[in-house]
Specification:
Elements: E1 3-6, H1 12-25, H2 37-50, E2 55-60, E3 63-72, E4 82-89, H3 98-112, E5 117-124, H4 127-135, E6 139-150, E7 153-163
Parallel strand pairs: 4-5
Antiparallel strand pairs: 1-2, 2-3, 3-4, 5-7, 6-7
Length: about 160
Amino acid sequence: MITLRQATVADLPAINDIYNHFILHSAITFDVKPWDMSRRTDWFNQMQQNGQYTVLVALKDNLVIGFAYNSAYNPKAAFCLSTEVTIYKAPECTIKGVGRALYKRLLAELKARDYHRAYALITVPNEASNKLHQQLGFTQVGLMSQVGEKMGKFHDVALYEKAL
């Protein structure tokens, strides 16, 4: 059984391990250097202080197997009712439906906070992520070609949008 809940400071090492895996082994994130715990703690504190952002974790047997959060889509004031959503699943987790469960909970919380649109940026190719977003009602509204360079290669990024 998977449990979903708000993240706590105690979850930060696991969140950081998951994220750092993707920094080191993929182009899913365009960060190129692993985050240390000081940076992760600062990030979490900023998320908590904002009041409009949520960080969720999925747990199996009290171990974090995934996390999802929302953040500013753009810092300019007119974008305040739009938000970027992000999700990561532990690379060793083989449980199906973790991402869907996290996103459903996150999207419900965003609707309750009166967000107007949710946006996701997906490095392509990533068929699993494309499929998940489409199944949850996101539509691809753009493609930024060769927008980021990582691991010696330029990568395209798809922009997905969901009306809330």
